[in-house]
């Protein structure tokens, strides 16, 4: 028989009394966090799940209202799980572990580190685990259901490459450049992953105004029409694989992450030259994006007309403050190549930094050397075309599931 000492009995009574008082003071909705608030076919969503998902989206700094997006995501995920389970599809423990590790790796963490970070932000491991399970199950379903119907041949790749080259393709893009110095890398990676799921121009523009570090943020990230050949070769296949409204996966750049959304594409309208070399100059100004450094950059811009004038600006300073050279497009750092793509000869960009944001890059395009032809990775283009078609099938199927579903909100 278990007995309590008088002290333990008193303590137990006080705890029980306090718990009873607390329960009577808590609002009814807080006592029913695990009661269903939405029913999707035979699956339920609780108030607790909505709160947890909203909190996770807040930690990821996802665009949009967290409560609204949480509701939308969880309803869609119930539909996806329903469809996957109807075909007997569910991730294996190994697939789940790999999926969790892959997602955590985008924030430069291992799974345990990522889970501890979520826990510190008030998000339970099960919330993240359910999110990953649904993603894996849905991707497996889409491949199983639509993969056999998506065949990409040489003609498809040729059309994607505009028959002969990227030189007669121009694109209308929007951009988001997220700073990601080491202290912010994990947060930036998670935010970039969420932005990559955006499907509307308005949502992307909103995210650009809120998060992007470039001057285009004031225009919602919108860029003007540009020849595809202006962009780094590594991006050609990625960009060609986008449908209007689609966003690239996060693209790592020096000290940051880039994302692009396709707004329009034209083939054969204007034949743009392709380039064997790009000449540019980079003058490095201490202070990063501080008002003093930006004011210094403005003074430099007002004093020069060509790249040659930068030698006079750098005179008497350490040789490393000015970098000038001519490189093949594939050899140019991605972030610099992206900025150069927007510039005409002798135009300037001050969007980039180095040394973890402590040094401002005064970037000037000196010139471009044309060439007749350029190799493009046909395999990468084929994968992009295939993924675009699978994504289209998946979106259509999800819309069908939503139309046929019984969704009840209590």
Question: What are the SSEs and their pairings?
Answer:
Blueprint: H1 6-25, H2 28-31, E1 36-40, E2 43-46, H3 47-59, H4 66-86, H5 93-105, H6 111-120, H7 125-146, H8 154-160, E3 169-179, H9 185-195, H10 201-211, E4 226-227, H11 233-240, E5 251-253, E6 256-267, E7 274-286, H12 291-303, H13 309-314, E8 322-327, H14 334-341, E9 348-354, E10 359-371, H15 378-404, E11 407-409
Antiparallel strand pairs: 1-2, 1-11, 3-4, 3-6, 5-6, 7-8, 7-10, 9-10
Helix pairs in contact: 3-4, 4-7, 5-6, 5-7, 8-15, 11-15
Could you characterize what this model shows?
With 410 residues, this protein is of the alpha+beta class. Among the domains are: 162-272, Chitinase A, domain 3 (Roll); 275-371, Chitinase A, domain 3 (Roll), CATH 3.10.50.40. A four-stranded antiparallel β-sheet has the order 4-3-6-5. 31% of the residues are buried. The protein has 15 helices and eleven strands. Helices cover 47% and strands 19% of the residues.
């Amino acid at each position: 028989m278990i007995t309590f000492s008088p002290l333990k009995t008193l303590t137990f009574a006080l705890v029980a009394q306090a718990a009873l008082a607390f329960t009577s003071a808590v609002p009814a909705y807080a006592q029913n966090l695990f009661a269903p608030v939405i029913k999707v076919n035979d699956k339920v969503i609780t108030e607790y799940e909505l709160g947890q998902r909203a909190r996770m989206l807040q930690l990821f700094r996802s665009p949009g209202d967290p409560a609204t997006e949480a509701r939308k995501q969880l309803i869609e995920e119930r539909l996806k799980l329903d469809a996957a389970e109807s075909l007997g599809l569910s991730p294996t423990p190994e697939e789940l572990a790999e999926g969790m590790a892959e997602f955590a790796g985008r924030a430069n963490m291992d799974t345990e580190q990522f889970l501890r970070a979520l826990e510190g932000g008030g998000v339970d491991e099960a919330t993240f685990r359910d999110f990953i399970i649904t993603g894996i199950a849905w991707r497996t379903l889409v491949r199983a259901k639509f993969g056999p119907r998506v065949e990409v041949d040489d003609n498809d790749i040729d059309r994607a490459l505009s028959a002969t080259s990227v030189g007669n393709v121009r694109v209308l893009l929007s951009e988001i450049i997220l700073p990601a110095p080491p202290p912010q890398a994990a947060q930036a990676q998670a935010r970039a992953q969420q932005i990559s799921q955006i499907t509307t121009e308005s949502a992307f523009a909103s995210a650009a105004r809120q998060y992007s570090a470039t001057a285009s943020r004031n225009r919602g990230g919108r860029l003007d029409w540009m020849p595809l050949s202006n962009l780094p070769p590594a991006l050609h296949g990625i960009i060609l694989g986008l449908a209007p409204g689609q966003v690239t996966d996060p693209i790592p750049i020096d000290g940051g992450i880039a994302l692009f959304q396709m707004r329009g594409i034209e083939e054969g309208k204007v034949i743009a030259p392709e380039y064997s070399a790009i000449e540019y100059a980079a003058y490095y100004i201490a202070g990063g994006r501080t008002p003093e450094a930006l004011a210094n950059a403005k003074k430099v811009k007002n004093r020069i007309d060509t790249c040659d004038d930068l030698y006079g600006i750098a005179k008497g300073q350490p040789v490393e403050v000015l970098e000038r050279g001519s490189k093949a497009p594939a050899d140019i750092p991605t972030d610099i190549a992206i900025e150069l793509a927007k510039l005409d000869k002798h135009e300037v960009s001050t969007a980039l930094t180095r040394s973890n944001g402590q040094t401002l890059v005064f970037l000037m395009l000196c010139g471009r050397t044309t060439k007749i032809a350029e190799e493009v990775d046909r395999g990468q283009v084929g994968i992009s075309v295939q993924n675009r078609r699978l994504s289209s099938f998946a979106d259509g199927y999800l819309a069908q599931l939503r139309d046929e579903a019984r969704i009840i909100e209590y």
